[in-house]
Amino acid sequence: MSIFSPVGNWFKAPTGTERLWVGLALTWCLIMSVTMPYWHFKGKQNSTGESYKVEASAFLDRANQFIESNKVGEEKGVPIVEPSPGGDAYLVGEMWRWYPILKLKKGQTYRLHISSPDLQHGFSLLPMNMNFHILPGYDHVLTITPTSTGDFEIICNEFCGIGHHMMTGKIIVE
Amino acid sequence: MNATQAIAKFRTCKTTGLRVFRNAEFFTKVNAVLAVVFLLVGAIAAIGLALTRWTAVHLLGSVYYYRMLTLHGVNMLVFWIIFMEMGILYFACTTLLNSRLFSKMLGWISLALMGIGALMTNYIILAGQADVLLTSYVPLKAHPMFYLGIILFAVGALIVCFNFFATLYIAKRDETYEGSMPLVTFGAMAAAIIAVLALAHGAAALIPTFMWSMGWIGPVDPGLYRLLWWGLGHMSQQINVCAMVSVWYFMGTMTTGAKPLNETVCRGAFLLYILFINLASAHHLLVDPGVGPGWKIWNTSYAMYLAVLASMIHGYTVPASLEVAQRRKGFTKGIFGWFSKLPWKDPGFSAVMLSIIIFGFMGGITGVTLGTEQINIIAHNTLRIPGHFHATVVGGTSLAFMGLAYYLVPLIFQKEFYLKGLARIQPYVFGGGIVVMSLGMSFAGSYGVPRRHWDVDFSGSILSAGFDPIAHVMLGLVGIGGIIAFLGLLLFIGLTVATVFFGRSNEGRPMESWQDEHSTRMKDELIEKGYEEEGKDYEHIKTPGTLTVVIIFLLTFAVYYFANWKALADLWFVR
Q: What distance in Å separates the CA atoms of residue B258 and residue B523, rounded to the nearest whole number?
């Protein structure tokens, strides 16, 4: 009777089926707890949160310098930039675009720096559905290795004002 | 206290024999009424959202979409649910402990603060000066009144919690009850403790943000804001869970005469909620910069999995107690004979049973999986997230509160429902709609469809983007499920409001049972027996039906969990 005070000494261990279930549930919780650190060492997809405090203007300077020195083309007025394999790449998320367009090589690893000079944004890579959070003032570094080729869309999935739905970008992998 | 004074301070409930204290009863009523008012506001916003996300309809313009999204989030997740929980706190610390309320004055002060706060925030959202969504992530800035309204509301809620704890104290001091407090009160106490912690985080996040919006201080760090805000945002969900589970136990007793199998286990599980949820804000930050993998993994598994264990325990103990109650009534045929004989036509029962099923199978499994550090990469800010929490907080908590209302209105407002036939189908309509909507969201989200997004065709963007046609079909399900749930919700609001204001009074007699004479008599007999038979015939009754269901649950959980790891493993490499 959950609405009345229990009678007598109610402090006792579970028995029978209830005890079995508590044991099973605890085992499952432990399995889940172990899986994350296991994947951290053995898995290929982790969010390490590597990041550095950065002033918006400093980040934009670095991004623009990166664009200037590595630009290989243009699409609809957006620069296409090819970073050197194993090197640094920059991506700016601002109201309301991701730029530049990045041209990467399959199987190569890049250090992708992403930041925002204005609001919080959500880096969402489609159609794979990989998502990372972007904060102003933080240089979020993703050490990323494309494993498939083609054109990939970037959208924003954190609300950033009225033009949020127009905020798109692109990654080309060859 | 002489007899006349006693009559003025409480009445004895003709249905349960419990004492209902007038002061607390008043505040329970007012909080419940306000809860339903804000539920209606949130519901009107909700239908606009569902019909906008349904891409074939795309009802609202972008400005109104985000405004309604802000309105919906704030009214549903804050005002409806917390007003309702305050009503439950007033009830659980007085009637169930046979005690008067500590302070009527504090009751009034908290009510005023909460009411004014809720009105301010609603006003400024509708005035178009706070299109920042519920989370109001800095540096997105709202009018100061937005933050101030929520802060006042939170302070009011904090005062209710204080009044609750003080009432527990005077009840113990005056020995108004013997031994330990009832389980429902214990669960409510767990909710109140978590509420204090949650509100402290809320203050730490919102007070500096309010000062910044006034221009008194410089910018607030967005990473720190997210950490603190989710200390409020996620812990609040644990208040909801505690309150919901308390309602499960309460309604289990009221509708079937069920008794907790083992008080130690049930209370221990509530204790786990209190101890292991304090850093649950972590799983909103799993793909954030600023916090490292050690921090993410530790806080996810440490804070989550013992709290998950608690939910898995309640998910067994509540149905198991129903099974035992049914078997004691003689429904012993096979493994599930007891299950088909449950009072499915009693909306108080069906709402709670659906709440347990939806919360466990949909909300729980998705929540734990999406909150896994690495799996969050394929879930963060997609529609999978609202797909999860509409199953927990709507299909779980709100539906349980609706079930409670089918008993609260006759017992506390002392009014009998009209159109009982409609009330009987209401939980199925609402629950069914939420299930369809939640599935639509989850599947659309697995294609990467973002949450909080006006146009997934990205019209006006320079570089085009878009989704698979199947994702659009899933968004259609969001719209259709949303319509069904909205109708179920209107039915609930219509029935309860009509009954509270114009219902037939049942003062001086027991409430009319939702169940037939035979089952009412059987459950009343079990309730009357109370704890008397402890250790006699009770402990020998097995629960094979519930065990079968929870084993199926565990297998479903494991399949979903590992399928997500498989999906993750197919992605680009990233660290």
A: 8
Residue from B311, B445, B288 nearest B373 by CA:
B288
Cβ(B99)–Cβ(B167) below 8 Å: yes
Q: Do B572 and A101 touch (CB under 8 A)?
A: no
Q: Residue B280: exposed, middle, or buried by beta-carbon count in 10 A (0-12, 13-18, 19+)?
A: buried
Token pair of B374, please? 């690495």
**Which of A4, A141, A142 has the most B C-beta neighbours within 10 Å, making it the best mutation to test the interface with B?**
A4
A119 close to B (CB below 8 A): yes
Secondary structure (3-state) at B39: helix
Given a cut of 70, whether residue B5 has pLDDT beyond it is: no
- d(CA B495, CA B491) in angstroms, rounded, equals 6
**Closest Cα in chain B, distance from residue A101 (Å):** 10
- Give the position of tokens 């498939």: A148
Flag whether pLDDT at B376 surpasses 50.
yes
Residue among B254, B306, B256 nearest B412 (CA): B254
Please tell me the number of Cα atoms within 13 Å of B385 on its side-chain side: 21
Q: How far is CA B172 from the centre of its chain?
A: 29
Separation of alpha carbons B70 and A51, rounded Å: 30
Q: Which residues of A touch B286 (CB under 8 A)?
A: 47
How distant, in Å, are the alpha carbons of A1, B86, B185, B246, B435 from that of B92?
A: 14, 10, 5, 10, 30
Architecture of domain A51-173: Sandwich (2.60)
Q: d(Cα B71, Cα B572) in Å, to the nearest integer?
A: 38
Residue showing tokens 């982790």: A46
**What is the complex's ipTM, to 2 decimals?**
0.96
Count Cβ–Cβ pairs < 8 Å, chain A vs chain B. 335
**pLDDT band at B280; cut points 50, 70, 90:** low
Distance (Å) from the alpha carbon of A26 to chain B's nearest alpha carbon: 6
C-beta contacts of A79-88 below 8 A and 24+ residues apart: A80/A172, A83/A110, A85/A109, A85/A110, A86/A110, A87/A111, A88/A112, A88/A113
Dump pLDDT digits (tens) for A62-99: 999 999 999 999 999 999 999 999 999 999 999 999 99
- Taking the domains of chain A in order of start, what are their residue ranges? 9-43, 51-173
Task: Please report, for chain B, the start and end positions of each structural domain, with discontinuous segments joined by +.
Answer: 12-181, 343-505
Structure confidence at residue A2 (pLDDT): 84
Res. A152: pLDDT tops 90? yes
For testing contact with chain A, the best of B267, B461, B523 (most A CBs within 10 A): B461
Element (H, E) at B92: helix B81-94
Dihedral (CA of B515, B520, B526, B528) sign: positive
Which of chain A's residues have a Cβ under 8 Å away from the Cβ of B572?
45, 125, 128, 130, 144-148
Cβ B324 vs Cβ B546: under 8 Å:
no
Q: Quote the Cα angle for B219-B221-B225, to 5°.
A: 115
Question: Is B541 part of the contact surface with chain A (CB cutoff 8 Å)?
Answer: no
- Which residues have C-beta within 8 Å of that of residue B85, sequence separation ≥ 6? B191, B195, B239, B240, B243
Q: Which residues pair with A92 in a beta bridge?
A: A99, A115
CA distances, B529 to each of B93, B325, B533 (Å): 23, 12, 7
Candidates B252, B461, B550; nearest CB to A2 = B252
A90 residue type, one letter: Y
Question: What's residue B177's pLDDT?
Answer: 93
Residue B335's identity, in one-letter code, is: I
- Yes or no: say if B447 and B469 are a contact pair by the CB < 8 Å rule: no
